[in-house]
């Protein structure tokens, strides 16, 4: 059922047709982009679950989701290896995911779940890697992993609001780090301020900027009238090509 739902939204992006959905747009936008780049023309109707795709090229969208789902295995392996320094533990984690029926099933269809899990586990891996660079703060690797954590937080929030849980996890980890630094008497207040500023920049401002940018792209791409028009004001509808109010002068 969900493939019918999100595949249709991928088609909306390809056709630039405006729609409304309860989830943020990044996941559907990426599905639409994968379909567009792989030659899908956005004409399959997605009327009900189980309809045959026939000549429609759907493999790019499924393949994209499957690729992101397959990335969960190395992400889990690297995260556990970093936390435990145990190769057997990391390998066991990877094999558990490789042979997990739920993970395989979720990854083989056009769904938001593999995209969401990619960003969730990416954020956790980046956070753990950044923690391992704590002995060399402000180095290139430290900045890289801290910034990548922020990018993954924006990705997780941009796919589904349940991404807030990984934001909470990273937030608690950051509070713990800053509290530990504040208690370090050998660290000057100026240096502590730099640590605080770096985290505000990479873990708050960067994710917020990327999250807003996703919506900017969403509204720029979807410029034609569609099933989501009625959720918005008359002034907004007047900007949509094909809407009854298109180019009509709307008073404030």
How much of the sequence is in beta strands? under 5%
Q: Secondary-structure element sequence?
A: HHHHHHHHHHH
Cα distance, first to last residue? Answer: 41 Å
Shape: flat
Question: Could you report the average pLDDT, rounded to the nearest whole number?
Answer: 93
Domain ArnT-like N-terminal: 1-223
Subcellular location: Endomembrane system
Main location: membrane
InterPro entries: ArnT-like_N, PMT-like
Describe the structure.
The protein is mainly α and 252 residues long. It has one domain. The chain is 66% helix and 0% strand. The protein has eleven helices and no strands. The protein is flat. Pathway: Protein modification; protein glycosylation. It comes from Thinocorus orbignyianus. One of its GO terms (cellular component) is membrane. It is a multi-pass membrane protein. Keywords: Glycosyltransferase, Membrane, Transferase, Transmembrane, Transmembrane helix.
Secondary structure elements and their pairing?
Layout: H1 2-15, H2 26-37, H3 59-70, H4 72-84, H5 87-98, H6 101-107, H7 113-132, H8 140-159, H9 164-182, H10 189-221, H11 234-237
Helix pairs in contact: 1-2, 2-3, 3-6, 3-7, 4-5, 4-7, 7-8, 7-9, 8-9, 8-10, 9-10
Key terms for this structure?
transmembrane helix, ArnT-like_N, 252 residues, 66% helix, transferase, mannosyltransferase activity, glycosyltransferase, mainly alpha
Explain briefly what this protein structure is.
The chain is mainly α. It has 11 helices and no strands.
């Amino acid at each position: 059922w969900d493939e019918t739902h999100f595949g249709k939204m991928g088609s909306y992006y390809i056709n630039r047709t405006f729609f409304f959905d309860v989830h943020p747009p990044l996941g559907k936008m990426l599905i639409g982009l994968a379909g567009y780049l792989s030659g899908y023309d956005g004409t399959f109707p997605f009327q009900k679950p189980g309809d045959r795709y026939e000549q429609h090229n759907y493999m790019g969208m499924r393949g994209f989701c499957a690729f992101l789902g397959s990335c969960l295995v190395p992400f889990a392996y690297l995260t556990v290896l970093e936390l435990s320094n145990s190769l057997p533990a990391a390998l066991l984690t990877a094999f558990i995911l490789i042979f997990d029926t739920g993970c395989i099933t979720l990854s083989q269809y056009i769904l938001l779940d593999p995209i969401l899990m990619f960003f969730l586990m990416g954020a956790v891996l980046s956070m753990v890697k950044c923690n391992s660079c704590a002995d060399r703060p402000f180095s290139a690797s430290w900045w890289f992993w801290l910034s990548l954590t922020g990018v993954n937080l924006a990705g997780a929030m941009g796919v589904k609001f349940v991404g807030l849980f990984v934001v909470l996890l990273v937030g608690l980890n950051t509070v713990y780090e800053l509290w530990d630094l504040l208690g370090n008497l050998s660290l000057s207040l100026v240096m502590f301020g730099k640590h605080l500023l770096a985290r505000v920049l990479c873990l708050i401002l960067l994710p917020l900027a990327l999250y807003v940018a996703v919506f900017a792209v969403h509204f720029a791409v979807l410029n034609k009238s569609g099933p989501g028009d009625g959720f918005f004001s008359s002034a907004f509808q007047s900007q949509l090509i094909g809407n009854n109010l298109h180019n009509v002068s709307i008073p404030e």
